[in-house]
Amino acid sequence: MYIFQSREITKDFVKRAETNGFEALVLTIDFALFGLRHINLRNQFRPPPNVQSILLNKYKDSNTIKNFIDFSDPDADWSYITWLKSITKLPIVVKGVLTAEDAIAAADAGASAIIVSNHGARQLDSLPSTIEALPEVVKAVGRRIEVYMDGGIRDGTDVYKALGLGARMVFIGRPALWGLTHDGEKGVKKILEILKKELDNAMGITGCSKLTDINQDRVVHESYYARL
């Protein structure tokens, strides 16, 4: 979910999620404005005109559609999470956290978990990679809430590093899309199998018999050896 200007749309989405058995809401907070995506500008990328979101069907003949198109609310603050908690019993996962300050603020506002994410590095140039930001965020919230991570996961060793630096779980995007493009659902399953095999291999080589054996002592920054 995004932080919509129209709270009626948010309420509708929450109701849909609850009705369809969703177990949590993921709220993306790093989309206050649409980023200047230079690669899209250079490539003259435009969304295909025949692609429509089924989420818009209810509003296509309503003025609410304008609020959806201009959906992000740049004036929103952490009280939005408090409001969202007041209309649902589903746990709220806050996505788009890169700093200790935001991690603490999300926890204070009532988030059940956070996702360290930089929106695929598409929103703003020069943002830190998520694996670089992860340790700071984990240290800031401790055991108060769970910390997840997305971005940059390309093989099983990347999963290993993220778990070692404190992530409870990782999300993948591009690899799943590559598998989908290659062979549909079977391709996605194959990607997941490859990642699992690579993670199992990394665990075996480093002497980890279970996921909880992977800890910060087993991961060093690439600059470590340059300083020796």
TrEMBL record:
Cited CDD domains: alpha_hydroxyacid_oxid_FMN (cd02809)
UniProt KW keywords: Oxidoreductase
Domain FMN hydroxy acid dehydrogenase positions: 1-224
Domain of life assignment: Eukaryota
Catalytic activity field: 2-hydroxyoctanoate + O2 = 2-oxooctanoate + H2O2; a (2S)-2-hydroxycarboxylate + O2 = a 2-oxocarboxylate + H2O2
Gene3D superfamilies in UniProt: Aldolase class I (3.20.20.70)
GO MF: (S)-2-hydroxy-acid oxidase activity; FMN binding
Cofactors that this protein relies on: FMN
GO cellular component, one term: peroxisomal matrix
Signal peptide, first to last residue: none
Oxidoreductase among keywords: yes
Biological process terms in GO annotation: fatty acid alpha-oxidation
Family of the protein in this entry: Belongs to the FMN-dependent alpha-hydroxy acid dehydrogenase family.
Descriptive protein name: FMN hydroxy acid dehydrogenase domain-containing protein
Source lineage: Eukaryota, Metazoa, Ecdysozoa, Arthropoda, Hexapoda
